Structures are given as C-alpha cells and as structure tokens.
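Lecture 7, part 2: worked example. A protein chain together with zinc ion.
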Amino acid sequence: MSASCGCDVNHTPRLVVLTGGPGAGKTAVLEVLAQHACRHVLLLPEVASILWKGGFPRKDGLPLRRASQRAIVRVQHELQRYAIEEPTTALVVCDRGSLDGLAYWPGTPAEYFDDLDTTEDRELARYASVIHLQSAAREHGYFSTAVRPESAEQAREIDRKILEAWSHHPHRTVIESEPDFLRKLDKALVLLRAQIPACCR
Ligand SMILES: [Zn+2]
Ligand SMILES: [Zn+2]
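Predicted complex, written out as structure tokens:
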C-alpha cells in the first residue's frame, strides 16, 4: 500500500468505523494510516471535535445534549455520503460512527433512533465492519488531558457504553487495552489494512 497505488479499478466503497472510549489511541492509528494509505482511502474526522472546536455550545441540559448528538449524526451522514459519492473511493475509515451517540444519549435507544428518523438496522448496515479500541486502563498509562477531561474510570465507563451501542454489529472486532500501546496500534492497523481492496495494497 502506498500513496501512489497506480490502481484505476472502479471500487465499490466500503465504510469501516474506528471507535472506542476516550484515550483509546484512535488518533494515533489514523495518523499512521494517513501516512501510508493511497488516494482511494478516505479518512473521515471525528465530528464531535469539529463541532466543539467550531463553537457548538457545550452546556448542561437535556435539550442541548440531544441537539448535540443529533448534530453529530447528521454531519457524520453527510461526510459519509460525500465520501461514497467521490468516484475514486475504495475505503472510508470513519473516526466514530452513528451508533456512538447512544453512549452519550440521555434517553432510550428507541428515542435516539426515532429522534434521528432512522433505525438501528439502517445505521448498522452503513458499515461493513467496526473496530473497537478499548480505552487504556489506568495501569496501562491512561492520562487525562484538557481535551480529554475524563478520568480513567469515566473513560472505561464510556468505553463500556460504546461497546454496548455497537453490540449488534455482525462484524465487530474489539482490541483490548494492553500494556504495550504499539502492539494495540499494530493490531488496529493490520485490521484496517485488511479492509483495503487488494488492488490498492
Ligand atoms: Zn488505491
Ligand atoms: Zn484499487
């Protein structure tokens, strides 16, 4: 796999979700992938970061929590649609997907899907596979930061909820927290590279 793969095949785009709790290492995985992927692999950014950095309000209260999650899913849908409509796309790697919001949603899953005018099946069907990187345990070097204020325990709790949110996906792989972060990174990269069509490797 290289930046100039020389491939001119007409690909059928596939979406893969990279998810997991805070501090799981998604960013590092995507940075390495970005350095090696050819132009047929599109990496979609994490939408929550775009919204928070762009000034979307962050306050307490149910109406705003619901609005935030709806906004995130709607932007995810539009980014995914653009990625699929690009004629050269073979693989779309999404930094989180539309089921992640269930982990933050202040209501039942049924209310989540109703409010978004979609269904669980429809959202699951968007993605060919899901790779879940578990949040690092405290003993494996988890640390809080300004953009990741959660404690190790809070991070694990969100991680657990995200695991639950994607539990019905038929092709999900969970990469557990382990002391050697590079091994975890490598496992994720092996899985992601396996999703790239042979013509582009
Ligand atoms: Zn390619
Ligand atoms: Zn190709």
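The longest strand covers residues 14-19. The chain has one domain: 14-200. Keep this in mind for problem set question 3.
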